[in-house]
Write a structure and sequence with these properties.
Length: about 550
Amino acid sequence: MPDLSLYWRTFMKRSPSERAHLLRTAWLWLRTEGPLATVRRLTQGARRVNERDASTDSYAEWCLRHTPDARQLAAMSEAARRFAYRPLISIITPVYNTEPRWLEPCARSVIEQAYDRWEWHIGNDGSTRPETIAALARIASLDPRISVHALPANRGISAATNLALSHARGDYVALMDSDDALLPHALYRMVERLNERETPADVIYSDEDKLDLDGNRCEAYFKPDWSPEHFLSNMYVCHLLMARRELVVEVGGFRSAFDFSQDYDVMLRLMERARRIDHLSDIVYHWRKVPTSGAAAGDAKPPAHVAGRRALQDYLERNHIAGEIVDAGTPGFYRARCRIEGRPVVSVVGGAPPALDRAAAVAGVGIERVPSPEPATGAFLLFGLDRLEWADDAWLLALLEPAQLPGVAAVAPMLVGEDGRIREAGFTLDPQHLVRTPLSGCDPADGGYFGSTLVLRNVAAAGAAGLLVRRDAFAQVNGFAPALRGPDARAIDLCLRLRDAGYRVVHTPWARLVDRRPVRSEAPIGPEDAALLRSTWAAAFQADPYHSRHLATESFNRVRV
C-alpha cells in the first residue's frame, strides 16, 4: 500500500477551495476505480504537485519579468499598427450556462487586447440559465466587435463552435473557452510571430498556464515546438490555438461525434494539410481551474478521454496507418500501437544477449547480428545493446511501433536503472554541455512534466544505447561520422544529420531497457568529440526545438527566470 503521508501534507497546504475539489475528485476515483487505484493516483499526484511547488517561486519571478506592464502594452499597441501583416483574428467561443463570474473576466481579457484587429463570436449553445443569458447580453454591448449567436436548443460544443465559426470573417480563428482568459498581449504576440516568417504559418499555438480558484497563476506549461509524434500521444498544443480560417473550414470544422475533444480532432485534421505549424514560446493564455474543467483534473470529463482516443483512431484510419490507439494509463494520454509491416529484419550491430531472440519473436521480426552497419541487410539497425538488459520481451516491439510512422527515422528507448528510475530518455541540446538528460532520476510512474514520461516525444538527439535507426535513412545521411569516436557522440551527430535531412527522432517510454550506469545529467563525450560537435553543429546546440528555452536543459521542473 503506497504511503499517503505525502498526500496528506500536500493536501493541507492547499487552499479551502482546492481541498474541496481534491476531495470531490478522490471520491470520483474511489467510486470508479476502487481504493487501491485511488491511493496510487493520490500519491502520484502529490509527488507531481510537490515538484510544481518547488518551482512556484521561480515561475512567479518569471511572470514578473515576462508579463508586460501598462507602458509596454501601450508600446505594443503602437507597434501592432505598424505590422506589415495585420490579419483579422476571429476569436470563437462556445458557451453553455457558464457562470457570469467566469464569463465576465473572459470578456475583459478579450477587450483589453493590445492588438486591435479582432472580432469575437460567441456561440450560445441554448443556455437556460437566466444569469448566463443576461451576462452574454451585457458582454455584447461592451464592444461592437463582439457578437453573440444563439442556437435554439442545446446541441453540443461542436455545434456551438461551428455556429461561431460560420459568422467569422477573420484571416485566422482563435479558439477560446468561456471560463478562461487571454493575457493582454496574447494576440499581439501571436501576430508578431506570424510576421517573423515570409509566409505566415497556417496554424500557431502558444504556451499556457492555469489560474486556481483564488486567481493565482500556476502550472506553467512551456511546450515544445511542433512535435507530430508527441501530438499522437496527447493534445499538448491546447491553448492558445489559432489557425487559418479557410483551412479550418476546408477540413470540415468541428465534428459533434468528437465533442469534448473536438479541438483535438480538428487539430489532427489540420496537421494533415497545414504547410507549417508554428509555436509561440510565451505564456499568453490562462486556463481556469474551474471544478468541472479539464484544467482542474485530467479526468474531470471522462468523455473527453474517450473522444480523444476515437479521434486518434480516426486519424490512423484516415491516413492508412495500420494500428490501434490504447490508453497510456492516465486520462488524456494515449499510445499509438502501429502494426509492424511485413516481417522486417532488424540488424543488431555489435554484441547482444541470447534473450534478444525472444524479443524478436514477440515483435514478429527477423534478427541478424552484424559487427558493423556496412554488411547489414535489415530494414532497421539496432545499436548499443551490449551493456543493456530488459525486464520483459516487448521492448523491441515498442521500439518498432513508432518507427512505422511516416517521417520517423530513429527511435530511442527509455533507459532505467536497477531502481526503476530513469537514466536516459532522449537528450536536450545545451550550448555549454552539448546535451543533457532532463528526466534523469525521475520515476516513470509519476508521469513527469505534463506527461513527459508517458508519451512519445520528439527529441533533438539521443544516445547510442538501444537506438533503432531505419537503414535507408542511415545510408542517406552517410551513416556515422568516421571522425567521431564515442558511441554517444556519433549517435548525436547522426540524429542531427537525420533531422537536417527532414526526418524526425522519437523517444518512446514503452521500450524500457535497464542500464546499470549511475544517474547522470549529461552524456559522456570526450573532449575531441565535443570540439568536433561544437564546430559542426554550433547553431543547433544554441536552441533545442523540443525543449522550451524557458526551462533548464537539465530539468523540466526548473523554470529559467
